[in-house]
Design brief:
Length: 420
């Protein structure tokens, strides 16, 4: 069974000029991989006939599936359909299903269908319409010289809706693909280079039909095993065996889940299962750690609250950090972090707390405490107190996000009893 290759083309000057972020390609690549279709290239071109025509010709030589997003609107710069019509040698004709959908879209909003918007119901002759229940421009499916072309609106909400409703089911039926299986292993507190060195022998011994990807982020490194095989039983058994061999190599201090959940969700699960509660005290992270915690639905069950004690006065008044300590040691040191953690723990009477204080930058650093120097502390109602310093980088926004992410892992380790 041969591999099926796909190429994704995003169309629009706004993408090239950086006015919008292309999220369509990422989503499409992930969804196609679940069907066993391998995305081999992604391209972005402007709203110019020649560029679109050239990329269509090139892509059709490389891939059995070409997906285009963008350029299907009613304005003069939306020329994707015109280029496709000429490329396929098929005139644009009115499609009754597309006309019904676009007419309903405007009628349901109390508006008349203009001649300009009616043009969106025209598609190349013999193309299959992928009906759009989310907007006005239909998706289109057409086959040309052994290649399937799918053209979609550039609006992510519409593109995803059309693909979920029509595109993905049609692709699954059209292409005979091997079975594919992914296994996610979530880690935190360790860099990808250290992980790679730690599991190098295991990775080298992977079967040819299983690959490993390292996906780093602020919150840790996600490992993704991907297996592709025509024998589904062999595939499932092999993925399971390789995962069982991998986990002991990672160690439970770094590994925390075999499902694709972030630290905030994992922490929430731990707290709910144990009936425990949490509070946070932040300075340099400006409440970002609290944002992470409260981004999890249902976090009100275990998160009692937090304080952003950005000034020394608030550290003293709200958290009980001694004025003399702040004057003698400054706001960024382990003793202050510990006092903040104990202060918020007692104030809100929670099971656990985390405190963060540091220098986010770009100003405020010194030779002793440069920008990116951060102190954190973990406290529990059983009397445990743990603190540690970290040195991050020089960019403010990154320091804020990294501080919050590292604090999440410190909290995880504290709850799991793995800080020592």
């Amino acid at each position: 069974m041969r591999e099926i290759y796909a190429e994704v083309i995003t169309i629009g000057d706004e993408i090239l000029y950086g006015q919008i972020t292309d999220t369509n390609t990422q989503w499409l690549g992930a969804e196609l991989s679940l069907l066993g279709i391998k995305t081999i290239r992604k391209s972005s071109v402007g709203d110019r006939y020649g560029e679109i025509e050239t990329i269509l010709q090139e892509a059709s030589q490389r891939a059995q599936l070409v997906i285009l997003t963008g350029g299907l609107g009613p304005t003069n710069d939306d020329i994707t359909k015109k280029v496709l019509s000429d490329f396929l040698g098929k005139p644009l004709v009115l499609n009754n299903d597309a006309l019904t959908d676009v007419s309903y879209f405007f009628a349901s909003r109390g508006r008349e269908l203009s001649d300009v918007n009616k043009q969106q119901a025209y598609i190349p002759l013999d193309a299959r319409v992928l009906r759009n229940q989310y907007g006005t421009a239909p998706g289109m499916w057409y086959e040309h010289q052994q290649t399937v072309f799918i053209s979609l609106p550039g609006v992510p909400y519409e593109m995803k809706g059309i693909m979920k409703d029509h595109g993905l089911p049609a692709l699954k039926k059209h292409f005979k693909t091997p079975f594919i299986q992914h296994q996610i292993i979530r880690t935190a507190g360790v860099g990808e280079s250290v992980l790679a060195e730690q599991i190098t022998d295991w990775e080298a011994a992977l079967p040819a039909f299983i690959s490993l990807a390292y996906l780093p982020s602020y919150g840790g490194v996600k490992l993704r095993l991907t297996g592709i095989n025509e024998d589904q039983t062999l595939l499932q058994t092999s993925i399971k065996q390789q995962t069982e061999q991998l986990l002991p190599l990672l160690g439970d201090k770094y590994f925390y889940a075999t499902e694709d959940i972030n630290l905030e969700v994992h922490i929430g699960n731990l707290l709910k299962a144990a009936g425990k509660t949490l509070s946070l005290a932040e300075s340099c992270s400006g409440g970002y750690a609290q944002h992470l915690i409260t981004s999890v639905p249902g976090s009100s069950v275990y998160f009692k609250g937090g304080i952003v004690s950005y000034s020394n006065d608030i550290k003293e008044q709200e958290l009980g950090v001694s004025k003399s300590l702040l004057e003698q040691k400054g706001a960024v040191n382990l003793e202050v972090a510990e006092a903040m953690a104990k202060g918020i723990l007692h104030k809100y009477k929670t099971s656990y707390s985390i405190a963060i204080t540091g220098i986010a930058g770009p100003e405020g650093g010194s030779a002793e405490k440069p920008v990116g120097f951060v102190c954190m502390a973990f406290a529990s109602d059983s009397g445990e107190l743990f603190s540690k310093t970290f040195q991050f980088g020089k960019e403010r926004d990154t320091n804020i996000k990294v501080s919050a992410a590292v604090a999440m892992n410190l909290l995880r380790l504290g709850i799991e009893g793995k800080l020592s």
